[in-house]
């Protein structure tokens, strides 16, 4: 993932030196997500070859196997160019494990398909409950801290993605049962809009 390099550079942009494990923990604290420490060390090595980070002195008594890195001027410039650049955001194509399995599960035995979809929906429900608790904890511990408020918003974003997957599984189940996907109809208000597009109150004169 090309953008992962900018994540690493962004975590180092304050000028303090850190090793891969510390970067992993900081990322987890800010997002509630965990990435492999090896991903950070491999990216640090690539960035070092390109001159965007450099190794720093290890504090006395520190584990010598964990080499700390510090961002260079070139690295800081690369991060700022990415952060404020004109390039648009790249949206995910959602070719994840759920999409791959969905290609084949609809052709399985209907009983098997039904049981699998039950397990998938149960897994999403459990994940949603866990995320809701994490979001609530982030909100309660915010106390004006920017990082905690950002974490709560990021968890909220993941909850919206999860809700979309739940809706997809409902439609996919209907498709597997032979009913076909049924898009959710738009809700219509009982009060029609006036010529300006605004809704009239029920008691308004025409």
What is this structure, in a nutshell?
This protein has 206 residues and is mainly alpha-helical. It contains seven helices and two strands, in the order αααββαααα. The longest helix is centred in the middle third of the chain and has 31 residues, at 110-140.
Q: Which structural traits does this protein have?
A:
206 residues, mainly alpha, Arc Repressor Mutant, subunit A, two-stranded antiparallel sheet, 2 strands, disordered C terminus
What does this structure look like?
The protein is mostly helical and 206 residues long. The chain has 2 domains: 4-82, Arc Repressor Mutant, subunit A (Orthogonal Bundle); 97-176. It is built from 7 helices and 2 strands; from the N terminus they run H-H-H-E-E-H-H-H-H. The chain has helices at residues 4-11, 20-31, 37-49, 73-84, 97-105, 110-140, 146-176; strands spanning 53-55, 69-71. Strands 1-2 form a two-stranded antiparallel sheet. Helix 2 (20-31) crosses helix 3 and helix 6 runs antiparallel to helix 7 (146-176). It is elongated. Mean pLDDT is 82; it is low at 180-206.
